[in-house]
Amino acid sequence: MQLPHIDNCFSIEKDKIIDVLERPQIGAELKWNLEALYADLKLWRSDFEKIDPMLKHLNELKGCLADSPETIKTAFELEDDISRLLEKLSAYVRHKSDENTADNQNLALLGKISSKDTLVDAETAWIEPEILAIDEEKLRQFAQSPGLSFYKKTLDDLIIMKPHTLSADEEKILGLVSDSLSTSYDTFILLSNADMRFPKIKNEKGDDVELTQSNFVTFLRTEDRNIRKNAFEKMYETYSGFQNTFASLLDGTVKADVFGVRTRKFRDCLDDALFEDKIPASLYHNLISSARKNLPVIHKYYGIRKKALKLDELHLYDMYNNIAATKEQTWTWDEAKEAVINSLEPLGKNYQREAKQAFDERWIDVLPRRGKKSGAYSGGCYDSHPYILMNFQGTLDDVFTLAHELGHSMHSFYANKAQSYHYADYSIFLAEIASITSELLLHEHLIKTSKDKNFRAVLINHLLDEFRATVVRQTMFAEFELIIHKHREEDETLTADFLKEKYYRLVCEYFGEKVFCDKLIEYEWARIPHFHYGFYVYKYATGFAASAKFAKRLIDGDRGALDDYVKFLECGSSRDVLDILKTCGIEPESNEFINDSFLLFGKKMEDLPLLS
Ligand SMILES: [Zn+2]
To answer: Ligand 1 centre from 101 Cα, in Å?
Structure first.
């Protein structure tokens, strides 16, 4: 199922104080055209009614999959048809609801489609176990049969799951406990997003404002150092009061990971997490060792930051404000659109022409308005062009968000065009590559076309910060995840003292001697939701590094770079992720592409006009 890429993981969150418009006040060219999905609700309802008969037809095959390869093929085809239709129905309702999250009719439809989704999941849960129950030799013969050649990869992927699949009765028990195993994470979310209250602090206007998870980064970006310091201290002092609860919640999540490893017979938690994408553990360890080796270049940057901000001591709350203090220009939508389209020149005329369709065919819902979902994402489905939700307010960040989301959309557009439905959706491991490549191309285009030294400094600062947040910070998180999982695998409890000590030491090592490592940072692990996702964040770091490689080759006009990039976009999930990268000119198992991304950082740092 194609999920929207919601970009809130490492982008800087903004306070949404918006001069809102009602939807009818906005011109059609700035609103997405959902009628391309369904012209009206009658058509949506008529498609919705088709799901149950299709499901009934599929379930008639229950107990027959071992009969022949053809039966499996029919089951897969029916499963695809149902999933494809559900995806289209969901995309329409989700996008409609995001136009106005308070609209009750949309909420009701969202509930209806979500229940149907759950029902389909439950009613089709028999398929995989039934295939896996087939004798292994017979199953391998099935996988070789010409009738199943299209689904060979899917079958091969299932076969490698066999050693980690339990008997039907055991699987049933695991299914029954799975819900309770996520309680720690559910409680973590409720505690940090709903129940915890933070003190009020003074903003730049002198008003008392309650500190929240979402305005925290906004405060860290202000030029007023007292506000930054205050926000930092109040945030982590509050967490210190809940340290044992947060430690216990993280312990609970990691304990559930270890439970999964032991029941399904994986080597360790890392092996389990990397299994689905067939990623070797060496790739994960290489990322950490390469990043560590390259830390001196980051430490050098902190020296530059300290000098640019004219500080005696650079603290951890001095990391997010722009070191190029200048008034940012406000962008009109047309200027943003023109800059993004022009930046795609290294991708060739065809790609540029296709990307223009996003504007001509109204893929994008541009402006904020009352009730609209905040943030940005790229969505849509296999049977529609992609859709982009934005809340464009004319900042430089917004222009980069447009480039980013358009990168995701073009990835889906190319994959959908080249692949059949079954193999069109791409893995999360690859998901951020096209979006970041697109941002890097925009960066180069703006640098090249701007004569304003201050603006160039803002751009470079923007890129360096994104690199730090995506590659350096996420690799540090990846290393922390290894530490906590190893501790639990040895049946040791993750106590607050253990977590604080290990986290603080890592922060000191990653930030180096040019930064004053404020002790309160030892509570930061408590507020990071990603530590509950099990070895997920490393994908941000490898994704950025792969994008940097693609972008460099494209900008340098390397022979074959464009072909490799288009091949990458078109692959979908038709091959394993490492194969896809390898055929497109990236050697994911070598350290080279990680090292290259640090070289890019070093080069950009030297280009900072502040230095000249
Ligand atoms: Zn993204």
So the answer is: 22
pLDDT value of residue 11: 32
Q: How far apart are CA 607 and CA 457, in angstroms?
A: 9
Enumerate residues 6+ apart whose C-beta is below 8 A from 225: 317, 318
Alpha carbon 25 to chain centroid, angstroms: 33
Backbone angles phi, psi at 266, to 5 degrees: -95, 165
Contact present, 243 and 500 (Cβ < 8 Å): yes
Backbone dihedral region for residue 572 (phi beyond 0: left; psi -120 to 50: alpha; all else: beta) = left
Helix (H) or strand (E) run with residue 5 in it: strand 5-6
Name the CA radius of gyration of the chain, rounded.
Answer: 25
Cα–ligand 1 centroid distance for 5 (angstroms): 5
**Active-site residue numbers?**
405
Q: Which residues of the chain have pLDDT under 70?
A: 1-24, 325-328, 610-612
The C-alpha atoms of residue 543 and residue 559 are separated, in whole angstroms, by 22
Question: Which of 395, 398, 437, 448 has its CA nearest to residue 414?
Answer: 437
The 8-class DSSP code of residue 328 comes to P
Tokens of 324: 């190029």
pTM: 0.89
The domains of the chain are located at 34-165, 198-235
Confidence at residue 325, expressed as pLDDT on a 0 to 100 scale:
64
Cα 287 from Cα 230, distance rounded (Å): 34
| CA pair distance 287, 99, nearest whole angstrom | 40
Could you tell me the distance, in angstroms and rounded to a whole number, from the CA of residue 594 to the centre of ligand 1? Answer: 19
Compute the distance from residue 253 Cα to the ligand 1 centre, in Å. Answer: 26
Report strand pairing: 314-315 vs 515-516: parallel
Ligand 1 ion local residues (Cβ < 5 A): 5, 7, 435
Q: Which amino acid is at 152?
A: K
CATH number of 34-165: 1.20.140.70
pLDDT tens column, 413-454: 999 999 999 999 999 899 999 999 999 999 999 999 998 888
Q: Which residue has the tokens 């990039």?
A: 565
Q: Tell me what pLDDT residue 326 has.
A: 66
* Listed residue (292, 283, 285, 287) closest to 594, CA to CA: 287
* Tokens 């308005």 sit on residue: 369
Each residue's pLDDT tens digit, 147-179: 899 999 999 999 999 899 888 788 888 888 887
Domain spanning 198-235, CATH architecture: Orthogonal Bundle (1.10)
Cα 133 to Cα 171: distance, rounded to the nearest angstrom: 12
Cα distances from 177 to residues 172, 183, 535, in angstroms, run: 9, 11, 22
Distance CA 239, CA 37 (A): 45
